[in-house]
Amino acid sequence: MCPGQGAQRVGMGKDLAERFPAARETFQRIDDALGADLSRTMWEGPESDLTLTHNTQPAILAHSAAVWAVVGDRLGPGVRAAAGHSLGEYSAYLAIGAITVEAAARLVRRRGELMHEAGTRRPGAMAAVLGLPTEDVEACCAEASQGEEVAVAANLNAPDQTVVSGDPAAVERAGEGCKRRGAKRVLPLKVSGAFHSPLMQPAVAGLSQALAAATFGEPRVPVVANASAGPVRSSAEARRLLAEQLTAPVRWVECMRQAATMAEGATFVEIGPGNVLSGLLKRIVPGVPSMTLGTADEIQKFLESEG
User: Fold this and answer.
1) Which residue numbers are catalytic?
2) For domain 125-188, is the CATH number 3.30.70.250?
3) Domain layout of the chain by residue ranges
4) 3-state secondary structure of 46
5) 14-119+198-305: which CATH topology?
6) Which SS3 state, helix, strand or coil, does residue 133 take?
7) Are strands 125-130 and 185-188 parallel, antiparallel or unpaired?
8) 3 state SS of 122
9) 84: closest CA among 56, 64, 68, 107?
10) pLDDT in single tens digits along all 307 residues of the chain
């Protein structure tokens, strides 16, 4: 499992670079591929630069890639399926060897640029709805969408946690509707656009072109796609669904249930910054074993336990 936007923080990955040469080399490869000192932004900030989506996206991918560079030889042979949340899906393809570190970094940098441009052209908003079933959130979005103003359920993160995305006024109406239906909390998110909504449509063509130009190998194990919640087994399907993902909801609940079915009895491993996905997993598929590998200490403990 590879995390997406929101997991970033100043200092991310610095401990990996200091302790593991393979991680340090990965950060350097990504800096070289982008022609920018991304690792310095990750480690020193400022936070205002790190949170720019064209920096945030490659930074989170870089962290996941650095972890995989250290543990991939141990974990790789046993991987039966992979998944990533939003931009994390690119990290998943990287981990299974379908795309290189350099190509993945350039793709997510371009993705971030295109999403920022779309958000500038038509400003949007997002809000997390806690404590309300997804079906109720979807109903509130339908009621809140009026005229050209739209609100949609964009991230289906857990049975009782859904992120709404769309035009600011419609998102606000949807949030009020969710509160009336009993939502515990509605939290506005700091984002530069209405991600995973129709407002991202202007970014699709550019991302499709970038995906077509990138070298993409055939997945050696299936990746469960956000847009379809089904296993992807070909590079053509991967490219198509990664482009569709911009305007489609992240069907994370279905993705995790699908992965649990495909890899029955397996341990879910979160690769990258934070432990958000592991927390969501406990609410989606209770009892499934999981672990997080994001800090140098976590990785060191894992390597020592594996002998």
Assistant:
1) 86, 196
2) yes
3) 14-119+198-305, 125-188
4) coil
5) Malonyl-Coenzyme A Acyl Carrier Protein; domain 2 (3.40.366)
6) coil
7) antiparallel
8) coil
9) 64
10) 999 998 899 999 999 999 999 999 999 999 999 999 999 999 999 999 999 999 999 999 999 999 999 999 999 999 999 999 999 999 999 999 999 999 999 999 999 999 999 999 999 999 999 999 999 999 999 999 999 999 999 999 999 999 999 999 999 999 999 999 999 999 999 888 999 999 999 999 999 999 999 999 999 999 999 999 999 999 999 999 999 999 999 999 999 999 999 999 999 999 999 999 999 999 999 999 999 999 999 999 999 997 6
The 3-state DSSP class for residue 127 equals strand
Q: Letter for the amino acid at 268?
A: F
Amino acid identity at 278? S
Would you report the helix, strand and coil content of the chain in percent, each value rounded to 5? 55, 15, 30
* The pair of three-digit structure tokens given for residue 299, joined into one six-digit string: 């990785």
What is the pTM (predicted TM-score) of this model?
A: 0.97
